[in-house]
Amino acid sequence: MWPVLFSFYGIQIQSYGVSKALAALVGAFLLRKAFTRLGYGKDLAYSLVLWATVWGFVAAKIYYLLANIGHFSWHMLGGSGFVWYGGLIGGALAVVVITRRHELPLGVVAGAMAMPLSVAYGIGRIGCFLAGDGTQGQPTDLPWGVAFPNGAVPIDVPVHPTQLYEALGAFVIAGILWWLGRRWRPVSVFGSYLALSGLARLLVEFVRINPAALFGLTEAQLFGLVSIVAGALLIIQDRRRSQPATSELSPTLTATGVGLP
Questions:
Q1: Which whole-number Å values give the CA distances from 232 to 37, 89, 114, 191, 198, in the listed order?
Q2: Residue 149: CB partners within 8 Å, gap ≥ 6?
Q3: How many structural domains compose the chain?
Q4: For 45-100, how does the pLDDT look when each residue is reduced to its tens digit (9 = 90+)?
Q5: Which of 8, 196, 204, 224 has the fewest CB atoms within 10 Å, counting from its CB?
Q6: C-alpha dist (Å) from residue 198 to 113, 152, 224
Q7: How far is CA 63 from CA 56, 106, 182, in A?
């Protein structure tokens, strides 16, 4: 593993932090391009990414601390220990506040952010893999099993590199969202992000080491199911709204009464 990329005058530059910074930069670049197509200012894209990142990390850390309050220690306030769904909640709240402040349609902004968010998540998970942050999976004898003897959470036996599974899934999802973005309305694109990312997390948890929380499912799997359902409902609702009424489809027939009961 490569938890420390290099040292600069005695200061260690860690892969975990670099990956998070790179994820934010790439996400901002992609969102700026999306906002340019929509006619929104590029500065707004940078502001959204900045505050969503800041409050996302704050919420992810708070969620982690609350989840581990029973064995709290001061080292938990350090650079590791974040929960993705806590970050998603915090980032989402920041986006809602900013879009309301600038009087932008939340659905359009959410749809524009879906693909950049998935790419950023994939980059971040690569950083977690390089750092060996302890989010790996169960022991495996598959040829791509990886040991993390020098990781932030050392482990000497080959395990599922679930960080890479999630990174690959995130990039595939980003490609699907890019394709859907040319064909579907923004709300449906964001709903697809919720559904697909929830499905990816649900599946990868089967080879993770997290304990079951309810009905034999881990906490992450339960959140994944909620994300899938929420995404599906958004898509269904948006697709229904996008269907024109009968009077819009055939005004002549409606006016003459043809085809009406």
A1: 26, 18, 15, 6, 11
A2: 1, 155, 156
A3: 1
A4: 998 988 888 888 788 778 777 766 766 665 555 555 666 677 778 888 988 998 99
A5: 8
A6: 16, 26, 4
A7: 10, 25, 35
Kindly state whether residue 195 falls inside one of the protein's structural domains: yes
Residue 151 included in any domain: yes
12-30, pLDDT tens digit by residue?
777 778 888 899 999 999 9
- The per-residue pLDDT for 58 is 84
> Between β-strands 4-8 and 155-159, what pairing exists: parallel, antiparallel or unpaired?
unpaired
Distance CA 136, CA 128 (A): 9
Q: Find residue 159's DSSP bridge partners.
A: 139, 146
Total-model pTM:
0.83
Q: What 3-state DSSP class applies to 151?
A: coil
In a domain, residue 258? The reply is no
Whether residue 147 lies inside any domain: the answer is yes
225 is in which domain, residue-wise?
11-70+77-241
Q: How far is CA 114 from the centre of its chain?
A: 8
Beta-strand runs (E) in the chain: 4-8, 11-14, 146-148, 155-159, 212-214, 217-218
Q: Which helix (H) or strand (E) is 109 found in, with range?
A: helix 106-131
